[in-house]
Design a protein that fits this description.
mainly beta; Jelly Rolls; six-stranded antiparallel β-sheet; three-stranded antiparallel β-sheet; globular
């Protein structure tokens, strides 16, 4: 492990996994800076679009809403709705199903950090009620 502070500039972000219409750009990860316990991405969701229903299997997530407005649908049946706006934070435990929806007229931009060097994401299908 390097014992120096490393800079990852905007031009160095690498394309990450997509979730529906949500694009992720990887900043801090094992592959970019040699991180062993943290993974940070910049997620961008266009107006009127949503991520796919999904779960993160191996990590907790801390999400900061940098810009835009929308909602997160969560719960086993994806029926709990949390409105989000700039300055809000979300905590997503491992295995928590969720969908991010952009209800605004501009991109929804999220800074997402996870307690792992590499995330494992799986699509989620809500059980029939």
């Amino acid at each position: 492990m390097r014992l120096e502070v490393q800079l990852v500039s905007r031009s160095q972000l690498t394309a990450g996994e997509r979730s529906g219409a949500m694009a992720r750009a990887t900043a801090i990860a094992g592959e970019t800076v040699g991180s062993t316990a943290i993974f940070t991405v910049l997620s961008r969701l266009p107006a009127g679009q949503s991520s796919s229903p999904h779960v993160h299997l191996n990590c907790e997530s801390s999400i900061y809403v940098a810009s835009g407005r929308g909602r997160v649908m969560t719960g086993i049946h994806l029926d709990r709705v949390l409105g989000i706006e700039p300055g809000d934070f979300l905590f997503v435990p491992p295995g928590a199903p969720h969908i991010v929806v952009n209800d605004g007229d501009a991109d929804l931009v999220l800074v997402v950090s996870r307690n792992t060097a590499e995330e494992h994401v799986e699509d989620y299908v809500a059980p029939k009620a």
